[in-house]
Amino acid sequence: MKSIQAGLLGTGTVGSGVFNVLKRNQEEIRRRAGRGIEITMVADLDTARARSVVGEGVQVVSDARAVIANPEIDIVIELIGGYGIARQLVMEAIEAGKHVVTANKALLAVHGTEIFAAAHRRGVMVAFEAAVAGGIPIIKALREGLTANRIEWIAGIINGTTNFILSEMRDKGLDFDVALKEAQRLGYAEVDPTFDIEGVDAAHKATIMSAIAFGIPVQFDKAYVEGITRLGAQDIRYAEQLGYRIKLLGITKRTAAGIELRVHPALVPTRRLIANVEGAMNAVMVQGDAVGTTLYYGKGAGSEPTASAVIADLVDITRLHTADTAHRVPHLAFQPDAMSDAQVLPMSEVVTSYYLRLRVADQAGVLATVTGQLAAAGISIDAMLQREAGEGEKHTDLIILTHSVREGTMNDVIAQMQDLPTVLAPITRIRKEELA
To answer: I need a surface site. Which of 93, 250, 281, 284 has the fewest CB within 10 A?
Structure first.
């Protein structure tokens, strides 16, 4: 049977990994796919780099549109990244009747609804396993492996850069800025790390998982996004004393009021497996009504781990290349005409529990005043820790863990406590997730 021909757009870290793994494991992949898969054409503005990756026998061009226009190409692999030219090329490939494989989470989180609608109309597939958590097959698990379940919630460490930074802060007692510089030195963080440390990258991925889990459109603009830049080393130490670790989590949850979609640092009990995921590794917890809790762990980035996911998509498309379009797995797991219109909740309506750190004057009555304000708002306390003031110090840290409360209510109480003359610095608030 004639091999499937693929065109590769971009030969950077992931693109080179895709070409190398596909070439190295071509016989194994042929046995699984039922026919060969060949990258026969490559586009990259740096044609010299592309030629050094693919060698002879593969056509190398500088114009990606030449790949799309080639009638012999069955699948276009988009590994350029970003929202701009990548979106144009993906849409043009779809309109040309080409299947698309992409690792571009930003593109799908922002423009996914448009892209999937176009693909459905043209009867082609858009596969994106590599867009979330690198080599971890979480998209396939959500779309296929857990299809019998009503998904209740997902919580994931889905950005390796921030997890590495938090691990360094905990293990070595480093401040954020120092840990970030170490991550940059080792190549885990970009020169401009904004997308990672501000939570945007994780929010792109959480948005995609939310759409698949609950059958809603991709709605990145409705995600709550908070990064790790304001975390202090002292908060990581206090969390440890209370039996928790701080992780940047992407969370999406089904509730009676709507869908939660949020990314922020969170205290997680140390007894949870996900709390012990260290370094640049990723992990995703999924709670289903039938299966219970499942955990998916592995490398969330890197040349060959991400290539593994890209090639898995190539194999899936190859297997289904001639299948009736009505019987393919839908892009977002649910049939297009059965998508839900459930609303994404504003953060003020989310119910969770909290870690509060107050720098307060070391004097009588402060604790009673603070706890009184919490009680007046109906907020119950789960645990409390007070640092003993050092010799000569006139202030101390008061740490409070609360039970669940609506975020809007907590915001109001924090504002009231902040106005107290005995509260000497901005109050630190970190959400707490038991993940039970």
So the answer is: 281
Let me know if domain 351-432 sits in CATH 3.30.930.10. Answer: no
Instruction: Please give the helix or strand (H or E) that residue 265 lies within, else none.
Output: strand 259-269
Topology adopted by domain 138-299 = Dihydrodipicolinate Reductase; domain 2 (3.30.360)
100 vs 76: CA distance, rounded Å: 5
With contact defined as beta carbons under 8 Å apart, do 206 and 261 qualify? yes
pLDDT in tens, 413-431: 999 999 999 999 999 999 9
Distance, in Å, from the CA atom of 60 to the CA atom of 332, rounded to the nearest integer, reads 33
Q: Is the pLDDT of residue 392 over 80?
A: no
Secondary structure of residue 277 in the 3-state scheme: coil
Q: Is 27 left (phi over 0), alpha (psi -120 to 50) or beta?
A: alpha
Give CA 123 to chain center in angstroms: 28
Would you call 173 helix, strand, or coil by DSSP? Answer: coil
Distance in angstroms (rounded) separating the CA atoms of residues 405 and 104: 36
**Beta-strand pair 126-127/292-299:** unpaired
Direct distance between the N- and C-terminal alpha carbons of the chain, in angstroms, rounded to an integer? 50
Using CB atoms within 10 Å of the CB of residue 197, give its burial: 0 to 12 exposed, 13 to 18 middle, 19+ buried: buried
Q: Where along the chain do its domains lie?
A: 4-136+303-338, 138-299, 351-432
- Contact status, residue 90 vs residue 27, Cβ threshold 8 Å: no
Digit-coded pLDDT (tens) for 86-101: 999 999 999 999 999 9
- The top-level CATH class assigned to 4-136+303-338 is alpha beta
Residues marked active site are found at 205
Helix, strand, or coil (residue 374): helix
pLDDT tens track for 184-235 = 999 999 999 999 999 999 999 999 999 999 999 999 999 999 999 999 999 9
Q: What percent of the chain has pLDDT over 90?
A: 91
CB atoms within 10 A of CB 21: 19
Could you count the other beta carbons within 10 Å of the beta carbon of residue 366? 19
